[in-house]
Amino acid sequence: MEALGHKGYQKSILRDWAGAISVWDEAIKSYPKEKKFYNNRSRCYFLMNDFKRALADAEFMTTHFPDYSRGYFRHGEILASMGKYREAERCFRRVIELDNSCLDAVNELNEVQIQYLCSLGFTRYQAGNALAVAKDLEEAKTLLRDGAFPEDDGEIYESDEDTTVQVHPVQGHYDPLEDPDNPKKCCSIWVGNMKEKVSEDDLKKIFSKYGKVKSIKADFSKYFVFVNYIESDGASKAMRSLQGQDLAGNKGIKIRYPDRAMLGK
Q1: How many whole angstroms separate alpha carbon 184 and alpha carbon 181?
Q2: Alpha-carbon distances, residue 197 vs 194, 200, 218, 236 (angstroms)
Q3: Greater confidence, 175 or 70?
Q4: By the 8 A CB rule, do 176 and 47 touch?
Q5: Sign of torsion, CA 12 81 243 132?
Q6: Which end of the chain, C or N, has fewer beta carbons within 10 A?
């Protein structure tokens, strides 16, 4: 079993998803009760954008291994990519029920809630504000529909400091939303793993080093900060310099561009 696992891992490192799937097929045939093989195969299908097969493996895991938190995480990840945000939300909630120390699930839960509200026509700025004060997603939706949170005031924060940008390569599989080259020209970044509170003034000072900042939204109860730059170059520089670094007492921050991002001009 270990030999098959190592072989599949090596295929994945080389991004040979089809080759890895062949290994996981063999592994599952030999060890049909080993849940991690289904998870690994689902991941490969997912990275190939074969959501149908990825989802089939994820659903198999949540049905046959109901206490396997990674199965629910994979299921939620796939559903979110398919735009099924409410279903994904339930999956990430289940992950947290099984493992309340899984910060990634907390972050993904917040993200799919924001994506759902954005799909209703609201901005990330509005969605983040509503979620910060509402007791649940339905209340946030009601607040937004009642006009409780207008668009941001457009205030711009800028730093005069010169910044030397260090490049930190993306680890693991390729994800354009974590690519510092910013192929989608996103003007915004989502910063996760923010467990320790940082003042708004300090956040402005930190992030304005990389470009003109239009607005910042922080929700430390959900461990994230959302930074909206004027130009996509600012978002790219921030990611290059800060990805995986310690920031104001927060260890190993995670930075992504949002799925529904503001496009650079």
Answers
A1: 9
A2: 7, 9, 9, 24
A3: 70
A4: no
A5: negative
A6: C
